[in-house]
């Protein structure tokens, strides 16, 4: 199920995120730290699943990569595309003309809200085809049908307005739109909400197929089954930080995640224990000084008063190891940000 | 008893989405409704919550057939249903803060006095911090917004809960937490639940009974071929 | 372990090493979004102008007790000077005094008419749209009836029925100008009415009235507010149009509209001051009001709120 | 397979409006009769003009009888109405002409002027509004907005003078007034179109501010909304985002304006025609009103009503088409 | 600046801008009743000095039967522009139709004296009057309509009202309402074909625009208010003509008002207003001080009735009459404050300025004049009690003005005698002057009237205003008539456009 892993020393990754941070300025001078110091690489042909508790900053991370943050946001760090374009500092013109849709595609969360309400799905599809794929007028209808087909969007609903779509239909429409640009990097923010299992599988398979060998996919999802189905690696976010990056096989396999939070997340699945992680996530406007998970963690001790760095420790899989990226040894392949990570063999979760 | 009897509903009289569907939820019972995407589950949920007038058929609440929908339904009828909508972004007034969104039903029904007590209590239950409560919908994540929407649905202590894909945009832990919140409430109040979703595993784990969409059609509500639904391309 | 990492990346969000870049500045290609300080400055100056205008209108004329109609034929059309900072008009009246008096009258006409028209228009439009059905149809046809008689005609009739003066003008402008507001508000409400959050409100037990007031009206306030602001200069326009037809305020009584209107000939003869100063007196307060309204709109706009800090 | 226009609902809307038009017309014409009657204007004095200043009372009384204005209001209205239904609109006392002739001769020019101006105002207004909304707070935005408010305060007779002064006198590029060159008799398309430029532009400019500011506001709001974010994320060109997404959503209030600005347009036309010696019918309206020229006034308001009703119908049809969430109710 | 492409400046055409548009072109409804209608001719017409001369009549009328019959011998061979001959029948038709009750002609009062009109053969017409009416011949300048055309139609709304046919020097080519009237020369005009072949009157109601259009060269001539005419002073191509007029501006001092009706107040105001400054500033010099309806340079003017501006004397008069200074500088007498309202027609700048200047002058005397404006509808009911800034003036005969202005029996009759002036001596003199055919007697009677007005003014006459016209110089030196208050279509330098001899 795992895709091909990029060989070490391969050309620059499709996306390389370095210390990306986003915060929102709020009233009274406070800040909401939505993303803090994210660092990871995404190679061509690879699919990275980004999971984490609701509100931990996944969508904000995606928005930051597309330069679509609201105006009260501030960013830091860098997010480099394969050719060195820094998505965080590129000017709007570059982003609009060459990046969005063309080099970085997005399946937005809340697709219904992201469709223009006064135009039919068909017209929005055709327009995108015309602009991004250069399809000429006579071929538009067929191309639109084909694009809809890819995302399992029923052709009979093409002439509907967004408000006339069910949640799942809107989701599929959004996916269809995002696939048109054939972007080398695709950000899919919850592309399967509102879909039934069969459609989820079809959709993620299509995404995987789309990625193939030369594109990369950042799959933001709550649907761990979907992540398991197509992801090569899994990144776990908690309270604005990436707390673990692991190969999917390890994460979902016997070894299991190493961060206590990630383990809790898996355990909460209905097919497993279906119990929430105790306690509540911290408010991003007032993050605790040390490890943000400490308050909910049964392993916490005094050491957790400092923020743990994302360290590789022992490479857990064949994933593109830290060695290849030199200066920032742990950011790319796998790692966990925990003072007391779980060792694999000990506590592998059983469904 | 919430009975949906041979309901036909949709957005175009000539081509209804929901055809001849029947379903019953007993008080205190939790029913999960499974169905493919786009088959009409949300529509049915809206009919059941008295928000959408069916073309044919009857909704019977506690033995009394419903005659008015939306504003025409008597207020206590309407508020007997707590609804969590599928798309939190669209179902939250963008001008109100989360706290106001939760408090709104109390205010609308003249129970503003309860606000200072109920809202923080519910916020705690669904896991919304004070900081988030002061923000407006576009300043929070979808999941956080959905928590507020659940709190809004519960604030009037409804006798029937209708959760339309409540957890679709939630992570596993939050899903588990919110399901726990609903179950706790049901245990305390004896409310009936109609949970709409796609996730068979989840619904089977959550609900006492799950039904498939295609089982609902036909007068008996047991058998009968489903009308060709859009997902069937 | 963490300490070793501190040099390669920021530790916490508050770490001084983190170099934050605002995104506001690059929200659009080349567009320099006004920085917060210029914005605040703009709002501040608008507020200052409006305050000054209100003070001038309320305090100056009674205090100074100048005779705005005193004619000094010998001093006609004097350019601005120390004695007459704004110069004099073609029968030798001091333009500064007349501008201040005119401001008083015109602002009264403009603001009262705008407020009345907006309130009526918003109420009618919202009522029609949220009631829907035949109420909507009948009310909107009544609106049609009203709008069918050209505004100026209705204005002429109304003004003619009274003695010429400020109030007939106010009434005639207010009564003829709520119609577009009503239609705009109705259309917006119709569009908002079908939003899912209205469903949520209904399910929460909100009455029709409450849905309208709490969820629909706030959504149309920007539209109605814009109509109101636009109405201020428009009312001044109307007042001078009525004068043009010989039916407005007594033409010797200073109002900004009539001042500008009366100065046309002087302008052709090359005397600019009788036009310029009253013109500025119309435009500057209007822009100031518009500026304040814009700031207010930004405040109530759910999306811009986080960005604007007053 | 493309979604065809919703002819059924549209036809029903048109039908309903047509049915409503009858009572509306009755109400408006009667209203005008009543208001004119209640006004202090005296048709006889107006008819007599300056001659009336020295005319004897007896002469005036005779005139009153001749003009038929001594009858009670209701019967006058009824007479007018029944005659009008038989195609006789009566004689205008101010124009000393049958109303049908008077209107027939001049209405074309008014319609030409008003529609040109309106179309111009909508197009230019929308364009400026979109440009201003693109960069809120930018210099273009500030210029356009200030200009719009300024123009809103400038009545057509002012703008008219300024326009003539600039274009006819200083630049000498456009004629200053009239339908054709002042000394020529023939009405040629070329001449009319040259003479149309200034009055139409002035009328358009006087209508511009609402369109500019509403488009600006609508587009500005839409630009901050999720759908536009979605369109941007898809990588659509800025032009497309602006026109096909932000403007498509933001122009909805403007469509309403199309209907509700018709009365203002008529008001504007009424002044512009006077200022530019344009031989249309609107200029006669004021005279008809102050002279209480009932037949002419009633016919003109009926015309205005039809224009307003059509404008509103058009607006509602467009709105229904442009915003599928609203439909064709009303 | 000399505009290129001056369309009208060519030798044979002229375009003039006027402010008023006639409602009708039918003489039967009042068009051209004071003569000079371009399309039509009257039996008589005025020359430059406003003296009567024959037009359609071959000579001036013979007056008989003690001033009650007027016999006109008609000019022979005159044709209407449609080729049909003009006969006595047309004259009878015209007058009878005007006097017909069914005809909506508001000025038929002017023909009140007429009992009947009789055609004697084809070329003699006899008017029988009800009473001797000395100025009757002045009334026969009114245009003659063709019976064969106008008689076939509804007189009030027929096509003739907009498409007239007459005997005059010009034929109407086109009347584009609200825009212009286009005339072409009548080649068969009995007085000889005019040199100006095409004559256009552009209707430009707005003064400022008219001035601008004149400047652009679009117009060859235009009537302008003093301040705008002034802007052409330095223009080498334009000449300004100031037509002398009988057009006065007057403040009515109604007898019904305790203050304005007081003779002392009236007299004080009469000498205490600064007419000279009004002429200089408001009229920019284009006018004269007025002391009565008759302008100071008219032969009918009674020398010595000029009032010298004298504030001291005015105050003296008031003091003597018991008007004592009260609070706020306003005089009082018997508990009555010396104040009264003064109305002017709203929108009329000239009257407004006169009213304001009057009020300012009155204030210096201790009389508070409250200036107010309104339409005639508003003003009319107030005329018996409130002062009004009125205007009027008709050069043809002193009777036309003075009788309606001063005759006590006409007080409150419409706009006649607005001040409710009541002076038996004046009444008697007016009646005498009206009935007498003898010039000297009439002169004496009007002298009496003017002297009485000094003793008891009733009105404060302020100015006689010149009508200013600016015309392109290429038409050579033009003349103007003495003009009445009403600006007829054909007043101004183009009163005799048919006789213009353009230079080029
Ligand atoms: N405009 C904003 N202003 C302030 N805070 C914001 C804003 N947008 C998002 N946030 C905050 O940033 C955090 C991250 O939000 P984000 O939408 O990325 O969450 P998420 O991980 O995508 O959650 P979900 O799974 O629910 O979509 C949330 O806590 C949210 O409250
Ligand atoms: N307002 C509307 N107007 C017209 N058609 C609509 C409208 N809302 C929904 N539909 C259509 O009705 C059908 C059923 O929609 P509904 O939202 O009930 O589906 P659903 O079962 O909830 O699907 P999902 O699981 O994707 O949310 C769909 O085909 C949808 O396109
Ligand atoms: Mg998200
Ligand atoms: Mg659904």
TrEMBL record, chain B:
Swiss-Prot/TrEMBL keywords: ATP-binding, Nucleotide-binding, Transport
Annotated Pfam families = ABC_tran (PF00005)
SMART domains according to UniProt: AAA (SM00382)
Residues of the ABC transporter domain: 2-231
Q: Where are the transmembrane segments?
A: none
Q: Name one GO biological process term.
A: transmembrane transport
Citing just one GO molecular function, the answer is: ATP binding
Highest taxon in the source lineage: Bacteria
The signal sequence is none
* Protein's name according to its UniProt entry: ATP-binding cassette domain-containing protein
Species name: Streptomyces typhae
From TrEMBL, chain D:
Q: Which residues cross the membrane?
A: 107-133, 154-176, 196-215, 294-315
Please give the SUPFAM superfamilies that the UniProt record associates with this protein. MetI-like
* Entry GO CC: plasma membrane
Tell me how this protein sits in the membrane.
Answer: Multi-pass membrane protein
By its UniProt entry, which PROSITE patterns does this protein fall under?
ABC_TM1 (PS50928)
- The ABC transmembrane type-1 domain covers 107-315
Q: Per its UniProt record, what InterPro entries does this chain match?
A: BPD_transp_1_N, MetI-like, MetI-like_sf
Superkingdom field: Bacteria
Q: Is the Transmembrane keyword given for this protein?
A: yes
| Location(s) in or outside the cell | Cell membrane
Q: Name one Pfam family in it.
A: BPD_transp_1_N
Which GO annotations describe the biological process of this protein?
A: transmembrane transport
> What keywords would UniProt list here?
Cell membrane, Membrane, Transmembrane, Transmembrane helix, Transport
- Keyword Transmembrane assigned to the entry: answer is yes
Family, per entry: Belongs to the binding-protein-dependent transport system permease family.
Protein name per the record: ABC transporter permease
Q: From what organism does this protein derive?
A: Streptomyces silvensis
